[in-house]
Amino acid sequence: MNYFEILKLPIAYDIDVDLLTRNYFSLQRSSESSVDSGLLNEAYSILKNDIRRAEYFLNLKNISTESMSTEMSVKMFEVREKYSSLENDEDKIAFQNQIKKKKKQLISLLKKSENDLAKFSEVFSELKFLNSFLEKERADVYSRN
Question: Which candidate, 35, 13, 14, 16, places its Cα nearest to that of 26?
């Protein structure tokens, strides 16, 4: 049984998050539920997160989330280079805000491209990179303070 089935949702990237939450709490309260609470919590945690849900969706479709195109590798290199060339915190924050905006656009594009798994996978690769880039930079800021 996969996480979508556990939470009584169709296997799709673009899900009704309100329905996900209602089903989760209904199953949590139900004494008749045969689903282990740890598994239920894990399923909910993954499906409510846009990036983790995309990765899980691709894994269910037997598509690797580890490989990336040469074009994507070049994009990643360019983002890192541009960011490292910025000299002040104000410019770095502005750049990070651009990346956050790009992440929102990519999430929207995922919803539109879930029927084209090659496109979905490519968009996911970029989203995953931008997310990890932001997390790394956030961690670096905290470690400097």
Answer: 35
- Same domain, yes or no, for 89 and 135? yes
CA 15 to each of CA 69, 85, 120, 136, 143: distance values in angstroms, whole numbers, following the listed order: 27, 39, 15, 28, 36
> What would the two tokens of residue 119 be?
């496109």
**Residue 100's domain spans which residues?**
70-144
**Mean pLDDT score across all residues of the chain:** 91
Chain segment 114-143, per-residue pLDDT in tens: 999 999 999 999 999 999 999 988 766 545
The model's pTM: 0.87
